[in-house]
């Protein structure tokens, strides 16, 4: 279209070429842009070749606005879409250098300089610069801006696309890391609950076993003692079921959270212990988790069941054990519970000692420590799986603590776990 418009206004320098040849030159140049994204470097070279051939044979056609846009777009695409930056810049620079040399060749051996002289004589030059020098400088400046602009804009487009790709990649990486951290947190919580279940079941089952054996031995001779033992079995089993329901409810809440997160739902209705949910149904209230303040009760229950156990509290200031953070307190309680259950299941001990130490502001730092010792030997035929001791060590390691578990040189067995409290280990007691 622009070719016919220009032809109607001025006389084009097309030699003796027919109209269809002129149209073929324009259409063939425009057709190159179809493959500018799939083969950018090849199209850039073909466009430069097209510009040279048409410029030599039909200078008026090559100078048309439409073909100038085609050549500019081809060079821009070669820089913006090429995979290899070095190759793209070499091709674009080579094309630019070739075109400048071609212009210099036209000016030196062609009629370009004579046209500047004739135009200055015909129109009357009023400038302060020589007509030839001004024409040559202006020609080179226009072409440098033309080709350089295509290269610079193409490079800017490539950098912008690369930055967008990197931002998208970073966003995907952050999303994947967040999902991985979420799943890791769920797995860690499941492991924690598994350890809790192991400790709860192990402790209560060992108590039930001891009381059932005692009831069986005195059932015929002392029915009253047997009834006491059976009542203790009942209480222990009820306590075990209550704690297991609480832990299983927590596990179900975790499963619901994981399911809702995978489904992309921001909020969900809490699932109770019995699996009931729906509008207006919240999570079932759970029993509070035990703390260091419950160790005395744990020892008292064992004494009531006929398992002689002593409890000693050592602390640098009164009430310090009540200010130990709940996670540390729960871990030390469960470790003590598992250690006492192991005494019942696997030892011939007749007594055990539990010592809780809460030490604050010492040269070695603040810490909470529990030590369980007994006076027995390993009971034959009761070797365990080792999961109990592994759980104790894992609980200590989760708080950067240390665990010393094994037989004592003078007889008996000892479990000693120390957990550093750190700067904020005593919670509100630091205020």
UniProtKB/TrEMBL annotation:
InterPro entries: HATPase_C_sf (IPR036890), HATPase_dom (IPR003594), Sensor_HK_TwoCompSys (IPR050482), Sig_transdc_His_kin_sub3_dim/P (IPR011712). It catalyses: ATP + protein L-histidine = ADP + protein N-phospho-L-histidine. It is an enzyme of class 2 (transferase). It comes from the Bacteria. Residues 331-422 form the Histidine kinase/HSP90-like ATPase domain. The keyword Phosphoprotein applies. GO terms for cellular component: membrane. Keywords: ATP-binding, Kinase, Membrane, Nucleotide-binding, Phosphoprotein, Transferase, Transmembrane, Transmembrane helix, Two-component regulatory system. This is histidine kinase. It comes from Knoellia sinensis KCTC 19936.
């Amino acid at each position: 279209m622009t070719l016919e418009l220009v032809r109607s206004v001025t006389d084009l320098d097309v030699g003796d070429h027919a109209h269809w040849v002129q149209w073929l030159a324009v259409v063939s140049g425009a057709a190159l842009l179809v493959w500018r994204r799939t083969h950018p470097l090849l199209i850039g070279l073909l466009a430069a070749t097209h510009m040279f051939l048409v410029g030599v044979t039909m200078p008026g056609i090559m100078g048309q606005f439409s073909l100038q846009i085609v050549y500019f777009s081809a060079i821009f695409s070669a820089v913006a879409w090429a995979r290899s930056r070095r190759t793209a810049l070499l091709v674009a620079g080579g094309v630019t250098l070739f075109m400048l040399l071609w212009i210099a060749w036209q000016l030196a051996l062609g009629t370009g300089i004579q046209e500047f002289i004739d135009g200055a004589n015909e129109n009357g030059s009023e400038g302060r610069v020589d007509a030839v020098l001004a024409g040559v400088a202006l020609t080179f400046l226009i072409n440098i801006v033309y080709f350089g602009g295509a290269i610079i804009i193409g490079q800017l487009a490539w950098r912008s696309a690369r930055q967008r790709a990197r931002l998208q990649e970073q966003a995907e990486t952050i999303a994947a890391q967040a999902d991985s951290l979420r799943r890791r947190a769920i797995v860690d919580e499941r492991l924690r609950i598994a350890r809790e279940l192991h400790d709860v079941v192990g402790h209560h089952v060992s108590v039930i076993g001891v009381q059932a054996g005692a009831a069986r031995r005195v059932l015929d001779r002392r029915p009253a003692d047997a009834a006491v033992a059976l009542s203790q079995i009942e209480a222990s089993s009820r306590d075990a079921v209550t704690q297991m329901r609480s832990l299983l409810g927590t596990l179900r809440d975790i499963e619901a959270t994981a399911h809702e997160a995978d489904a992309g739902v921001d909020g969900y209705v809490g699932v109770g212990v019995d699996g009931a949910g729906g509008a207006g149904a919240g999570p079932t209230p759970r029993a509070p988790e035990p703390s260091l303040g419950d160790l005395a009760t744990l020892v008292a229950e064992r004494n009531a069941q006929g398992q002689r156990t002593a409890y000693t509290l050592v602390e640098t200031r009164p009430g310090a054990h009540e200010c130990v953070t709940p996670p540390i307190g729960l871990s030390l309680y469960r470790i003590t519970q598992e250690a006492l259950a192991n005494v019942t299941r696997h030892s011939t001990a007749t007594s055990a000692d539990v010592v809780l130490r809460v030490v604050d502001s010492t040269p070695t730092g603040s810490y909470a420590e529990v030590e369980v010792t007994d006076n027995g030997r390993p009971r034959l035929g009761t070797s365990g799986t080792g999961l109990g001791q592994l759980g104790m060590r894992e609980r200590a390691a989760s708080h950067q603590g240390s665990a010393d578990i094994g037989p004592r040189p003078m007889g008996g067995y000892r479990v000693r776990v120390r957990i550093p409290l750190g700067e904020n280990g005593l919670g509100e007691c630091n205020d």
